[in-house]
Amino acid sequence: MTNAWTDIKNTDLVVVMGGNAAEAHPCGFKWVTEAKAHRGAKLIVVDPRYTRTASVSDLYAPIRPGTDIAFLSGVINYCMANGKVQWEYLRNFTNASFIVKDGFAYQDGLFSGYNEEKRDYDRTSWDYVIGEDGFAVTDPSLQHPRCVWNLLKEHVSVYTPEMVERICGTPKEKFLKVAELISTCSAPGKVMTSMYALGWTQHSSGSQNIRAMAMLQLILGNIGMRGGGMNALRGHSNIQGLTDLGLMSHLLTGYLNMPTEKEPDFAKYMETRQFKPLRPGQTSYWQNYRKFMVSFQKAMWGDSATAENDWNYHYLPKLDVPSYDVLRMFELMYDGKVNGYICQGFNPLLAFPNRAKLTAALSKLKFLITMDPLETETARFWENHGEYNDVDTASIETEVIQLPTTCFAEEEGSLTNSGRWLQWHWAGGTPPGEAQHDTWIMAQIFLRMRELYRKEGGAFPDPLMNLSWDYADPNEPTAEELAREINGRALTDVMDPADPTKVLVPAGKQVLNFSQLKDDGSTMCGCWIYSGCFNEQGNNMARRDNHDPDETGAYLGWTFAWPVNRRTLYNRASADLSGKPWDPTRKIIEWNGEKWTGYDVPDISPTAKPEEVGPFIMNQEGVSRLFTRGMMRDGPFPAHMEPFEAPIPNVMNPKMVGNPVSRVFVTDAEEFGTSAEFPYVGTSYRLTEHFHYWTKHNRVNAALQPEFFVEISEELAKEKGIEKGGWVRVWSKRGSVKAKAVVTKRIRPLVCDGKTVHVVGIPLHWGFTGAAKKGFGPNSLTPFVGDANIETPESKAFLVNIEPSSGPEEASA
Amino acid sequence: MSNSPITAVSNPPVQPVSADLGPRDLKRRSATLDLPPPERQLTEVAKLIDVSKCIGCKACQSACVEWNDTDPGVGENVGVYENPGDLNPNMFTLMRFSEWVNPETDDLEWLIRKDGCMHCEDPGCLKACPSPGAIVQYSNGIVDFIHENCIGCGYCIKGCPFNIPRLSKADHTVYKCTLCSDRVAVGQGPACAKACPTQAIVFGSKEDMKAHAEERIEDLKSRGYENAGLYDPAGVGGTHVMYVLHHADKPHIYSDLPDRPEISPVVETWKGAVKYVGLAAMGIMAAGAALHGLIAKPSTVKREDEEHAEALVEEAPKNGEGV
């Protein structure tokens, strides 16, 4: 989230698209009801189904799964065509005026530089014209035909209301109502918020879905505003923490990147991470990258990381592929190239696509270790449960070791919520049975492996032998110790840059925040963006002061938000060029002639003059990007791409299947179905009654939603002879499930490009363990392909068939 | 107990509180002739359920099960979102979902209503109940079932205009929402209101809840719901559980919420001129073994039970004492 949950109460318009906040985030949704009740805010829902969120909306529009870019581009087109633009914001705070290289072009659904064989773009033409002074060339008048604004205008012009209806199936009148209401938020005194979740991410073009809305928000001037922003609703209480702490194969902590093979040494690695400003006088805060990186290396390897050995850069693995994401790992496993798999707090057998492939992959492992508080399907993948898990147990040789862990309520530590708040919590219970904290288990694995290396040696043991492990009890680091390490401290006296005779941070003391980090080895910091969470003032995550001066929703004394306790990112953009709030009733910060003051921690140097320094300090441009240069694999602008399995061809280019640069493994390419064989669009989702695959283990939740079902329209039910509450079989190219049928008016057939499209809704909470009735998950059906940029699986749009059936058979033995 | 509005969102008192809602606060007691007037008048309370803010998450159902420590059991999906399928002796409240196409706009509306006891000011269940003290009403308006006094006859089910009480096959007594009288007794709101994430369920003095409802109705009218209004039906003397409805002119579209609920004429006769005499007659019979079968067996009120009761009423002298 750019903003915070509590900030949503400040909005005038909530757009829930690519998510179902009332259903999947009911507690956070209270801020929407608050905005509606006390600000008169309106709520728009755009979704293939009339959801629980839709049930309290002011305006609902249906959409075909996987066509959000066309819809949003249509809204951008509407706003541009009707002058519904926050012009001053656009001119000064976006790259609308930047001139783009002549080679850049878009035609037939593809951008310049496409290589079909490599399924990749040569992105060199997707860039600005750079002047002789080394800065990007701009035309503040927005007249230049090659400026971003004019290229964008041309790019979205095809997305007329008629085209939106043709692609998305959204009736033109509904679309226009949505576009009109959204466009009112271009007024500086009107603000819209976007709340989205996996309804946008779980597509092969997921990142571009989000880009499209972010661009719309920039055109309307809603980023950095109170009540505005791009608000990703995270589906687990600490999934934000997972990405922040770099638990992805291509990331280190704080969005530092894992090196690649092309970066064999530190100098080479830093060469492409200079982040020189692209406009005069801009901050480009990533210029501090080296300080964060060196401090991270010092946190990892302490004294053994020195300037002479490039801070042990050679200890870091070097990626030979873009990422070892979950899809790739299971592909390798399926290929017999993985011996062991440690599955910590994760139930891939139900969470990842093409369950048949996952089962086959797990069956090829030598060993599988699961760490979980619950009996997961993954841990029991070898057990026969009749139709629910029809495996030949005797033929599976994988040794499975289940390590029971504690759950969140039995642990102390912090959880990072969607709004980037690191909230400390205390254990509310003692672990049952043999359960152990994850930290204890990880420590044991580490200590025992280190001991083995000490005794027996091995290839390149140095990273393991020299790993910092400075905890009072090496067997179990405490949450406090880890948090202090994440915050960072001075290793030797850190001197004040303004007065080199003055000690800023004495050796051994916690740094105040990342502004005190150094690239000379005098500081260490586990995760720079979290720095400040546990400094010499104490554990700031444990703060519980709920004062909120003037009720802005900032709550600066409540826990700690990264970065540096800032609640609204880009909040300098809430004020105009001279530093006055666009809307005085929505002031976050303002320029008082000398510095920035207000309700939140300014997202800019406190003394940076408003006319000189742009609000988007993390960007080399100092402004936000409507055109992302070569930073995304599938285009500098979002363009309509069909899902890999779509009921109609891409109207921009009928030959184009899916996202043209998404990674597709050879065996999976043969596993895509066609609309001739699988005429209906499947989509997966969560229900309020359950949390993922956890709460089916709880009798109360199981009572409230006991059994797997799918949802279909009355029209499709009639066509197929399916009765309400009757059994149906749903199948795709990859698998088959049986479910009860919920026949509903909440799903209506759509007409797309002249063809009637039926949607089959498939919720995801059932499996073969737990208290609820046994059932299936949509992942038995979903395709093994992910988003082109981040590999999030395409679980929200795929093709299925459906027929009435008998119920599933249990295991006989 | 404090007379200030109790809102379920406020945190409960930290200090130990002793229960302050008891027999001396009763203003009605089933089949009781000589109930002394309550010693004090408690502030009338109400739960307000704003249907327009409800997202149907069932947190209220979950909280109800947890607080009352019931186990509604893992049922099956019969093609709808209601689970369990109906109210039952272990499920005192239920989200009911209806898909209604507004004929004026042709837009679908998914109307979600939390069903449960309405805590009528004029409680049909209590009036129908032949067993002394099995159903009581406190001066704050809460209607509560006292299980040790319940004989399982099921008349309350017949007497309820909202079809709420459910007879347990396990212990042959009747169950329904207590408005968390045990929580209210220690200054807390009902569990459902505490759990409601959107504050669609709020709890406080009836006066405050009506004022709160007015604000909500104004907001709904500003959004084009011309007939938005408060459901506090006069036919049962008003209720201590009220709804804000977007379409208050047609309550029945909310999963058959009665448009004009009133106590059934049978019960009204029962209650009228002859009630206590009839009850006295029944009481005498209950004391003996004659009604043994009636107490032990019935899970519903059968036609013959009803006829039997009416016969008892008719047999009683029309000018009996205690009228």
| Shape verdict of chain A | globular
Distance separating the two termini of chain B: 33 Å
The average pLDDT of chain B is: 85
Overall 3D shape of chain B:
globular
Based on DSSP secondary structure assignment, what is the total number of beta strands of chain A?
31
Measured as a percent range, the helix fraction of chain A is: 10-25%
- The average pLDDT of chain A is 97
Structure classification of chain B: alpha+beta
Identify the biggest protein-protein contact and residues per side: A-B, 45 and 43 residues
Residue ranges of chain A: pLDDT <50 for 5 or more in a row? none
Distance between the termini of chain A: 49 Å
What kind of sheet is the major sheet of chain B?
4 strands, mixed
The strand line-up of the biggest sheet of chain B is: 9-2-11-10
Discrete helix count of chain B: 10
Quaternary state reads heterodimer
The CATH architecture of chain B is: 2-Layer Sandwich
Q: Tell me the major beta sheet of chain A.
A: 6 strands, mixed
Number of strands of chain B: 11
Element order, helices and strands of chain B?
EEHEEHEEHEEHHEHEEHHHH
Please give the CATH class of chain B.
Alpha Beta
**Radius of gyration based on Cα positions of chain A:** 27 Å
Quick summary of this structure?
Chain A: One of its GO terms (molecular function) is 4 iron, 4 sulfur cluster binding. Chain A is of the alpha/beta class and 813 residues long.
